[in-house]
Amino acid sequence: MSDLTTFSALSFDCYGTLLDWESGLLADLSPLLSALPPSHPWHATPLLAVQRFNHHSEHLWATQPKLAYDTNLVESFRLLAEEQHIRLPEETLSRIGDGPGRWPAFADTVDGLQRLGRHYKLVVLSNVNEANIARAVAGPLAGARFDAVYTAEAIGSYKPSHANFRYLFDGVKRAFGVDKDRGQLLHVARSLTVDHVPAKELGLRSVWIARGGDKPEGYGTGGDYEVLRGEGKLAFEWVFQTIGEFADEVERQVAAKSKE
Asked: Per residue in 189-198, is it b (16+ CB within 10 Å) or e — as a string?
């Protein structure tokens, strides 16, 4: 396996990679699902609701890039409900706006980040607003250390915009002397379309935390792996199912080097 010990910093997508975005979102969508008729296909395959919600959210990313993520979530939920001809109370719609601050971390995340933090600077690059990421860092991600957090709200656009990644490159170079062009930065993410496609376009080396997304039934909202691979849009060099497995391999390589 290629050498992971040569990097100085790791940049992470947060939602879907560190935090369980899909299950957290689905829990917040439950009032809509419970209002649908029993025959509705979303009852049998709830992920379809998440994917449709994500379609609305990504459309708003592209058309209203300065819309804060909490508002994006509320408006996406509203559009989803209207599409299904369901009227939901405003307080039900608005509750989803603070979801990113309380959605759970994957079981492997905090321990994995603690171990990775012994070897690298850790940076978050997320399509989220400042208030929600602050709540997430203090809540479900408590115990992990982040050296910098860059949000869509601060940047003024959403990934996969190249502007977000350039903001990352400038930020880590200025703050830590980490130079992406010298191969010192490694991006770690679940989403293919939002993270790995622009990473290849910008020459940013990357790790895929697949979390089942390497099989069609696990694609979720991260993109169609076979299609994107066939189109030559992916260039990640490592694949792990979890952050924990990634940390295991880093520790293995560090230990092996210390014996040389």
From this structure: bbbbbbbbbb
* E strands, the chain, in order: 9-12, 121-126, 148-151, 185-189, 206-209, 238-240
What stretches of 8-89 show up as alpha helix (H) in DSSP?
21-35, 41-44, 47-63, 69-83
Q: Read off the pLDDT band of 219 (50, 70, 90).
A: confident
The residue among 120, 201, 197, 123 whose CA lies nearest residue 167 is: 123
Nearest to 127 by CA among 68, 45, 188: 68
pLDDT at 50 over 90: yes
Span 156-169, mean pLDDT?
97
- Structure tokens, 177: 């002397």
**Is pTM beyond 0.90 here?**
yes
How high is the mean pLDDT of the chain? 96
- Does 170 participate in catalysis according to the annotation? no
pLDDT score for 259? 84
Say how far apart CA 204 and CA 180 lie, in whole Å.
7
The arrangement of strands across the sheet holding 185-189 comes to 148-151, 121-126, 9-12, 185-189, 206-209, 238-240
> Which pair of structure tokens corresponds to residue 161?
């915009």
97: exposed, middle or buried (Cβ count in 10 Å: 0-12, 13-18, 19+): buried
The active-site residue out of 13, 20, 70, 108 is 13
- The closest alpha carbon to 19, from 170, 187, 189, 172, belongs to 189
